[in-house]
Amino acid sequence: MRLSLMASSGILALSACALTPAGTGAFTVMAPASFDRTFTAAAGAMQDQGLALSLEDPVNGIVVGSLESSAVMADVDQLADGHVRVTFDSTGANDPALMARISSSYNRRMGR
């Protein structure tokens, strides 16, 4: 009897608790990025950082640009699961922060 009374009290107490959201801040639900949007954002991010684009090949997903003696290549791939992946590679980079700035520009253009 005592055990069932304690169990009933516990269930009653828990049922009075209300679950509220952790915060009232705004959030954004984003749809997966399209290949075209990703390609355009990658090329734009490179231009944002002063690179002169020498190749924009959306069919193969390649963007190549240069700044002084640095060359940067963006490779945009459509994955089998529908997601899009972009990678930036550099050669001869005199500015070690260049890739970080390009990445930041890309994220900003993608709304991240």
Automatic annotation (TrEMBL):
Q: What keywords were assigned to this record?
A: Signal
Lineage, top-rank taxon, reads Bacteria
For whether the record's keyword set contains Signal, the answer is yes
Q: Where is the signal peptide?
A: 1-18
The entry's protein name is: Penicillin-binding protein
Give the species this sequence originates from: Cupriavidus oxalaticus
